[in-house]
## 1
Amino acid sequence: MKRKREESSKSILSTAAPPAKKRMVVTPWRDIAEFSAVYDWLFSKQTTPANRRKALSQMRIWSLRRGSLCPASVLATGVLVQAQLEDKQGNPNIQTTYASAFTRFFNFMSSIMQGFNMTSMYDTAKQLGLQSFIVDLRHLCAHGQELPPAEVLRHTSEHCMEWLRNYYWLPQNETMTNLDAPKLQRKDKAAFEKELRNLMEIYDLALECQLMGAEKLKAVSKLKSSTEFNKIRVYCSAKKIKTTTEILDKVISDLSAAIKRQNSSMKDLLDIYTASVLKMKYFLGAGLKHTENEELVIQATQNLFRLFAVQGYIENIFVAFVQLAENPNADDESRQGASYWATKMLQTFGMLRKMKRMYTEELDKNPNTKTVDFTTLNKSEISKLMRTLLIHSGCDLTLTLVFGECPKKPRSWVFEREFLMNRVDPLTPHSVPIFNSLLPLVEPPLTAEQRNDLTKLCDIKIQHINQEKTKNPKNLPMDDQTDDKNTSEGTTFGIWTLEKDNNWTTCALGVLPTNLSEIA
């Protein structure tokens, strides 16, 4: 018997239902406190008609917030409470009011089961746990020649309110919890962020290997750690490629596909994309590490910038580089790298502007000149006329990023004066090259005198920054040095003097350690 009992108890434990899985629901109430307040106003034993009116007003607000998505139980509760309040006020047409309320109550509740294809209202009531006489009463209210007595309607409304409390309000009030909104992240957004991070990491590793001369996987294995090499090896195996050049091209292709898969309405898509680019440490510093072979850096990263242009993100990436170069909290290596790429992009903007001007002049001389599509610069093969414009732009094509316009967002590649002036205040030695390269691209154009004035202003600001660094060799905040100086010299602060001899730690808050006899 004991063994049987043990076996039966084990079977009971093993067949117990698992705990219910929590699900996230968008509600019309702000938090559980707001919901609980309405619950207490409705069902507390000490509730009053005034509290019920407050509950009804709050439920109407919920209905406005969510419209047709407001829970049916809340709407059903609202119509019953409205009828009960009118009954308390002595409405002479209370039978008609209750009849309308019961009809709407049952319609709201049956809408919950509309996807279950019930054959009759009785089946719906049974599924909901409502007694069948509610359906009979609903039929009398909707189609009967005479309405039921007010007393019957009154008691039935109380019965339905108690049913609503047990069916909906009480379970919600006991199980519902607030969601920590700052930690909430959409699954598609998290997946997209992870995908971009992995692709950018592979690109950064492959770029480093290629610039270091490791083209094949065997050479890569000698250059990188086992962990980093394994990431490259797994990617190559999945994509069936063997060289770092193929890796760079394949990552560009995968990045393009990843963006196309995302819904254009996804919030923070551009921010995620830009942040992933700025996290590529080797990419940021590549131009500074390989100054003697800069043409290799430009060649290796050409397709990445063309991808930015095709996607319409080139301007956003440029602004991100500028802001990173100006950011005093970022490390110097990242700021220098951002300054390098922003300056390189400005060279390309200037080249494109000059090419457009030359094409316009040629078109004025010869209207039969072939049409030039500047979006074709994002491809490896370009027309003969476009190649001619590139050559006559005066830029060294081996040291210049060549990318074109976005097909959806063509622009003239000029900057407003406001953008330039906004660069003055956060100016740093890292952003000076960016500032100087912006001067010829400002619209309306600056005069020679204005350029000289801005250049002088730039020099003065940088000179002031260097002087501050000289005075503060330990990179301490100036306020800290001032405090040390004042403390060492004695404690004079304008008209105030700090007494060192007084024991301030023994004084109560707001009480000065003053000798009262001296005041007297």
## 2
Amino acid sequence: MSENQESPAVEDTTPSGSTTLPPLRPPCERLSCHKSSVCSRSYFVVVMVFFHVYIINVIALLFYVHYSSGQEEASRGRDAPSGDQQRPESGRPPSKPEFLRDVSLIRIEGIRVGHVQKVSLVPGKVHEMRTLSLKPLLFEIPGFLSEDECRVVMQLAQLKGLMESQLMVQDGQEELAKELNLSPEEIFNLLDINQDGQLQLHEILTHSRVRDGIWLTPENLKEIYAGLKADKDGNGLLSLEEFRLLSNDAFQRFLMQRGVKRSQLVRNSRHTWLYQGKGAHQVLQDIKARVTRLTRLPPALVDLSEPLQVVRYEEGGHYHAHHDSGPVYPETACTHTRLAVNTSTPFETSCRYITVLFYLNSVEGGGETAFPVADNRTYDEVSLIQNDVDLLDTRRNCNKSNLKVKPTKGTAVFWYNYLSDGRGWVGEQDEYALHGGCVVTHGTKWVANKWINIDPDYQRQARYQQLVSQQPDEEDDEGLTLNPDIQTSDIHQDL
């Protein structure tokens, strides 16, 4: 057989004659299913490795960009001009500067009613400060002013001239209602405090006293109802149908025709204002400095507050119960900082955080300062007028007040008109600070008021102080810090 001829396939045999096995196949040919699973796992591992490497590279790039931009901004800040030479980015309106709230208003602790503290207000003299109530937080300091200081303040007020504390309210209430476009139903619901569908005597009285400045009694109101033929069923209540028959200024027109006595005004007194800044009489500057030490407030806050008000009540003079400052809502502006708000607002209040009241003489009869609801468990405005007893009426019901302070020459009383917000600033209005001047039955009564105005909105207060002082932000913040001399612990000591 030639070599080119194909030999038949012959099974190999081992020397023992047994049949030999065919050669082994590759793994992938033997088990095809194992091939696919192994390849899938390998592919997954490779993808995950590349994915993690990608994520790490992205994070590293972000860190690089962050630190590089930070260094560039720092270098630009060092090279940039200061002050007004810096220009904001084009297209972006400059935002109002934010002031760091690093100032806390010190609030004196009352401890308990009757508690006495020693107060160092002038060199070489120690005053005693007694807690009169905790709601409101109210203190009395005998001998705060000397006899000479009381005399000088009264003489300066007479020299400047005193004006009527309250004038008859001007006309125009009906025009104002028309401007607001209020319907009789809307006005009725506005006055109906308890929303029972009827206007009770105290609801009308409160509205008239605030709007017209005339202190009407329930008897006066019934007389007006009869004159205007408003209360047809004679039950002392006004329904919506009865209210529709009255014009907005019907009460005012009726009172103008009948005439209003001075005793029917909310306030019957004369007053003037005395400047206490640089160049003022030394006694006035000394009083302001003493108030600063007493309240332990930053001097800048006291300096930018209202001047000293001096008031004289003749025999028969009074001031019905009121709050020195009203509540502050988001839409409310404080009178002293309204320029810093730079927006129009329909509501304004004086924002008098603290009242310091000085008695410049001792009154022969009457003239006490009454706090009708001092240390009451609760405060309810509606319950102030009940069962023909009006706690707001200082001509009739001063003896029903929870607390009365007798006017004594040189004595000062001071109280907080607002609570703390819990963070060292001004909080909500303290409704228990309701107070009034009882009618003077004999002699004349002279008092002075020093109000410290603070805006509950810290940003508005700080912005206002910056506008007034025209100082940079850094210096303005320093102006809000407390005087180191006032922070000494020996100013107020328990007795």
